[in-house]
Each structure stands twice: as C-alpha cells, then as structure tokens.
Amino acid sequence: MSAALPDGPLLDLPAEYRTPDAFENGLFTATHRLAETGLFTEENILRMLESHPRELANVSRMGHDPTVLEWSEGLTDGLSPADILAALKKGRLWLNMRKILDHQPEAAAAINKLYDDLEAACPGFTATRRSANVLVSSPGAMVYYHIDVPQNILWHVSGEKRVWAYPKRLADTPRDELEAIIAVKKEEDAGYDPSWDEDAFAVDLKPGEWITWPQNTPHRVENRVGLNISVSTEHYSPRAFKYVRAHRANRMLRDRFGLPLKSTATSGLGYSAKAAAYLAGRAVQEYVTKNRSLYHYPKTFRVDPTAPHATVELNGEPTPEAFRPREASAAAMPVTEPEREMANV
C-alpha cells in the first residue's frame, strides 16, 4: 500500500500546551488524523505483519485482576498474519509490533510527521530518539499499572479503551523502585492499589484521540469495546534525556562506589560531574547494556486461532482460568466529563 499523507497537521495541540514546559508537564487528550492515512486499518495491519520481523511482533496475554501481574508471551511460529489477527479477535491477547520506524517506512513517515507537527505547534520543544510501536489488542485485554522511562504518547485509532494516569502516585513511588526502573534493573510494572483510581486522571479514549502525560507518570489501560488498534510512541526532549541520565548515574555510582546520590537536577556542576562519570569508559557502557536484558517475560503458550481461547499451553495443560476471555465489561461506569478535562500536573 502506498499512502499519501493528508495535507495539513496530523494533530491538534490545544493552545494552553504550546510551550515546552506546559506540554511536557501536561496530562491531557486531544485529536489526531492518523485514520485518514489508511495505514492502521485491519487490512494494512495484515500487510505490516507480512513484512515485519516476527521477533519484533510479540504476542502476550494477561490475567483479569489488575492487582496481580500475570503476563506471559506466546509463540506464533507457522501462523499467517490472518491467523494472528483471528486469534486477537477471539482471545485475550496483546500484539506489540516494535521498532516501526525501522521496518515500516510508510507508517514511519506518518509518525514522524506527527512529531514534526508537534514540534511546529510547540516552539522550542524537540522530540529526539523517537520510537514507535503498533499495538493491536483483544476486546477486554489490559496493560498493568506501570511506569515508562521515556516520554510517551498513545495515539488511538480503532476500538475504545479506558486509560488511567496517576500523576499523584509518582511522588509516592519509592525512590529505589523508580530508579531501578529507569536504570533498567527491573521491569516497568509497579505495585498497584485500586483505591488510587479515586485520584486518577481517567478517560475513555476514542478513535482519533491521543493522550500524553508527564514523564514517568504511572498508568494502566483496559480495552472496553472491540479490537483495539493504537500507536504508542516514545521520545526524549533534551531535558527528559538528562533526567534519565541523572537517575542512571545515581544508581551506577551508588552501586559501584557506594555514593549516596539522590539529586535528579539536570543542570549545574553536580549534574555535569555525574554525567561525565556515567559516560566515562567502556565499563559504564557495559553496565547499562548488561542490565537491559535482565528480565524477560516467560513464553508459556502457543497462539492458535482454532483453540477455544486462541491459545494452547506449552506444558500441555488446559488454559488457566486467568487467561480465558470473559464477557466484555459493558456495565463499566462511564467516565464523567470532569475526568476528561485537560489538566496540568
């Protein structure tokens, strides 16, 4: 498929977020025009799966209890793209097509235009180290409460999902846990208490909407209606990248030399000294690289669209109840308008 991008900006950025500080510290929704490109339809998802490296197209499953982490990955060997899509519609699965900017040039052009339009609408803001994943997920699927390291944006294209963001919980996240996540010494999943929903920013995200939040804001997602197709992008502004480097330097210098460093300032002599120490020599680079592969979700099932729950256990046992699809939660309370209001945090 050869797609011509629509004329004009592919996104709307509300006026109150058109400065770097307001945008990077804002938690809000707005609209986009990705659907007009035709690149993220079911038909084109099948085309993308045909050419995408299979090792970069992970299919995962999850339980039903958002307080209990039950996440594993499955095998798709021998399956066609149509088989995978059929399983996604039937089961309780989450397809994550990674490194889209490297392997899908037409989608990459659209995603880079989104960022270029964002930079044009927000003078002074720069999105570096851009990356993108295409997410295709079953009705009722969810992503657990977690903390991402880069700045990120969720661009929703099809279906309906509820997103909770927890800006007030970031300050309460234990320093060691946040630092370990940023230093890639543990997975991004974090402990979750349902009572935190009372203070969350919650929104039912519709096709054509996007949402963003301040860096490291904890969040979680539940699909509400239909097969969901979204694009998840990550980036770093210069400030955000320095913030990550400060955290990683603190962790490395404490682990290796016992220095009790806590400051996450991104300027001044203290930051410059830490950054220089962090970058000095091959040993530091090996420290980061080694820790990037410390964790892997287990592979416990094979995707099979003909199976009752679209999965077959590798150990030969029946599919555990936790991973079986249930009736979609049609009785979920709608999000009230005040929760959908844009908010600065």
UniProtKB/TrEMBL annotation:
<feature type="domain" description="JmjC">
    <location>
        <begin position="93"/>
        <end position="252"/>
    </location>
</feature>
<dbReference type="InterPro" id="IPR041667">
    <property type="entry name" value="Cupin_8"/>
</dbReference>
<protein>
    <recommendedName>
        <fullName>JmjC domain-containing protein</fullName>
    </recommendedName>
</protein>
<feature type="region of interest" description="Disordered">
    <location>
        <begin position="316"/>
        <end position="345"/>
    </location>
</feature>
<dbReference type="InterPro" id="IPR003347">
    <property type="entry name" value="JmjC_dom"/>
</dbReference>
<dbReference type="Pfam" id="PF13621">
    <property type="entry name" value="Cupin_8"/>
</dbReference>
